[in-house]
Amino acid sequence: MAENKKLVEQITARDEDFAQWYTDVVKKAELTGYTSVKGCMVFKPAGYAIWENIRNGLDKRFKETGVENVYMPMFIPESLLQVEKDHVEGFAPEVAWVTYGGLQPLQERMCVRPTSETLFCDLYRKDIQSYRDLPKLYNQWCSVVRWEKTTRPFLRSREFLWQEGHTAHATAEEAEARTIQMLNLYADFLEEELAIPVVRGRKTDKEKFAGAEATYTIEALMHDGKALQAGTSHNFGDGFAKAFGIQFLDKDNQLKYVHQTSWGMTTRLIGAIIMVHGDDSGLVLPPHIAPTQCVVIPIRQKAEGILDKAAQIRDTLAKAGIRVKLDDSDRSPGWKFSDQEMRGFPMRIEIGPKDMEAGQCVLVRRDTREKLVVPIAEVAAASADLLEQIQKDMFERARAHRDAHIWDAADYEEFCRTADEKPGFIRTYWCGDEACENKIKEDTTCTSRCMPFNDSEVPEGARCICCGRPAAKRIYWGKAY
Amino acid sequence: MAENKKLVEQITARDEDFAQWYTDVVKKAELTGYTSVKGCMVFKPAGYAIWENIRNGLDKRFKETGVENVYMPMFIPESLLQVEKDHVEGFAPEVAWVTYGGLQPLQERMCVRPTSETLFCDLYRKDIQSYRDLPKLYNQWCSVVRWEKTTRPFLRSREFLWQEGHTAHATAEEAEARTIQMLNLYADFLEEELAIPVVRGRKTDKEKFAGAEATYTIEALMHDGKALQAGTSHNFGDGFAKAFGIQFLDKDNQLKYVHQTSWGMTTRLIGAIIMVHGDDSGLVLPPHIAPTQCVVIPIRQKAEGILDKAAQIRDTLAKAGIRVKLDDSDRSPGWKFSDQEMRGFPMRIEIGPKDMEAGQCVLVRRDTREKLVVPIAEVAAASADLLEQIQKDMFERARAHRDAHIWDAADYEEFCRTADEKPGFIRTYWCGDEACENKIKEDTTCTSRCMPFNDSEVPEGARCICCGRPAAKRIYWGKAY
Predict the structure, then answer these.
(1) Mind telling me how many Å the CA of B146 is from chain A's nearest CA?
(2) ipTM above 0.85, yes or no
(3) How would you label B84-116 residue by residue, b for 16+ Cβ within 10 Å and e otherwise?
């Protein structure tokens, strides 16, 4: 019990100091590590395995829509980065520059990719000649570098892992449809696999991607009421195509510019999982994405037959396709419970001499700590059902929390007070003027999160929350990671 | 027919100019592409999909031996690279240096990882305290950079993809066992999945990895008789541990240094597949690794019912787990045959009106062009069997070719003549002196490939092929990629 307590005491309470709680969970669940490389993180096995499951799940969904994976160079020559004006202004201040190759200074310096639009454009310019070459639906999984000053594990680091999809299309309509398709794919993935509800919408011009015509986003709400932009999908129109000269001969024998999109998700998602689902005992992983879904923990494991029975339960679950481990280390059961809870494994199975005698075992949910006694003969089916139930309940709980933290404001005073006092999204009308966005940010540190697809109606007579002029848009505001 | 011929004519004959043939195949099979980034290659979908299959297959085998994946930073501070003396001498001349982060010069420059021993050591120093923390069996999939002057797709480029495994153990014996285990895992993977026979052996001290105590290698023979080092596994002993101070408290309460290993395979393997199996019609992919294993090609596809029947065959194969495509483009069947052969898909299925009437279709092997007429009702089982047969035959053919290109030499004159006239491995005895290795390299451009595990006996009275002194080792020589 003392040992048990000790392990738990090392985490700060979530509602006491959310930032410190986050740091503690990341560290105690052994998701990341540190090296001498400032601002860069190590993904340890427990952290990387979550990313592998995210990657595999997303990749499968991408491929089902016809996307193909490629790998592009990690370096971008300075002249190539400079081709599209908005793009270079957006990224040049935060890239890492390679100036020496071996012992020789480079004739032209190169940055380590902060994103690869320019490289994909460079390739597409060569590879796209005719309408027969379209669409191009490429994606790559890689790491990118942005020279951040302050960093936090998963949320902001100088190097992070992501995927970046880059597509080229014959028409504007097709590009727009693909942009929305990928945003919805992202949203469905978060809701179905990560149990994170999202608001789908469009970014304002102020917040859109450097070089994009339109940026769409999914916004998730963390437990502390701050928003996290969890994925974005951009319609570039033909802006990059014109800057790079990507033209094709269409069926009507006319030379036309392609229309492009790009879309990306990053290892930030791991931060989102932690901050949406975690609690005072540590990490809570949604079953669909958990590298280990269940731990079998023997009680009085030196008693005759217990370890064998525990191993048998593990094998039964593994055979049923459940990602399961047996903790047969020489620690106490209490220590093992705390350890399993800290690491966020969605359920555990306890089996002791009395259980064995009764032909049963105890299933314990990580999320609610509810216990379920089941016959050993039915343990695989019961565990599979329980994991699905946990997945569903985690999503519903996150949705209820999110919905309880969407606030309306009648006037600007109420807006400012809400921003100050009530964590969450604030839903208002907006005139569409960037000046109001800037004022709101200055007054409250809230930024525009998105103009939602649903809940988008602007009734007759609606007014901008900031300036009071006639409203053009429904919009969500929030403080964000 | 004319169209057909045109496609094939664009490849140089393999035995006429092997290097040009290789370049042609890489280009025409659309494995790689070029961008403005000098010395770096683009992995196009057809090339990257091969790597994905290699990665997935290897990763599964790694994990079955207890290996866990991690991800380390891509940057290495100069001071960290310099900790181990031999290591820095081996790599410093060929690394890319980052000197600016954003607009600011860095206080300490950092290289883009050429390999990550130093980073893993930096992590292990922090994470290993007790025998309970051992072994560490970490691996990462990433790209690395070496500033090569001359480059060739897959074989040598400034950036390439690989995996690097890094393990730490309590004892020298355990480290040596892991080193050999991983080498054998590599060898089995090449033989079973890539259909490439290898010679397993140990590198000489001259050829071993910078910082290693012993390097083991698998050496494959390309169709042109040149060798390719396909994978290496290194035993570091406690050299890195001493340089980095990686110590643990053992069960006997003594502070000890860990023993480490590392092992890697790269996208060179794709080059090996091309050069072992390819022919005058293009790429030939082993079925186990081929992203597309079979193409269904309709003959007279506008005839009634043909496209439906072809699609039905595709669906039947897909359901049976075969990676299959239907080519229903508006090209001629002859063009499609050439295209399938160029891309190396292991088999195709032809189906025309007469076949359909007879309830049959035609299976054509890519490797031998043999045709097999089978009832449509049995097409899935027949295709699965045929793919296994192709895999087996490709391996046997490569092994026969390899075995027919291992030469013995009675004296140094015969050695030099063999090196000059007969492509392949030359098998000799050797005194163990680096001076002889140097002389042989100077006289013949042959390098020592390995001291084989099998075929290692040195009989009484055996002499060094170069200096004539008593021999210490059996050794294979060859010209290499």
Answers:
(1) 8
(2) yes
(3) beebbebbbebbbbbbbbeeeebeebbbbbbbb
Question: What is chain A's Cα-based Rg?
Answer: 25
Q: Are A207 and A448 in contact (CB under 8 A)?
A: yes
pLDDT of A2 over the 50 cut? no
Q: Using an 8 Å Cβ cutoff, are A477 and A449 in contact?
A: yes
> Could you count the other beta carbons within 10 Å of the beta carbon of residue A251?
9
**Cα–Cα separations (whole angstroms), residue A306 to A294, A330, A380:** 18, 14, 18
Query: Do A373 and A360 touch, CB atoms closer than 8 A?
Result: yes
Pairing of strands B406-408, B425-430: parallel
Quote the pTM value: 0.96
Nearest to A102 among B93, B101, B126 (CB): B93
Those of residues 28-57 in B touching chain A at CB distance below 8 A are 33-37, 40-45, 48-49, 51-52
CB contact under 8 A, A72 and B138: no
- Tell me the residue type at B167: T
Q: How far, in Å, CA of B257 to CA of B246, rounded?
A: 6
Contact call for A159 and B34, based on CB within 8 A: no
The reply to whether B72 touches chain A by the CB within 8 Å rule is yes
**Interchain pair B49, A68: CB under 8 A:** yes
Q: Where are the beta strands (DSSP E) in B65-146?
A: 68-69, 75-77, 96-101, 104-112, 136-145
Q: Hey, which residues does A426 pair with through a beta bridge?
A: A407, A477
Q: Does B138 touch chain A (CB under 8 A)?
A: yes
Comparing CB atoms, the residue among B102, B147, B161 nearest residue A71 is B161
Dump pLDDT digits (tens) for B292-302: 999 999 999 99
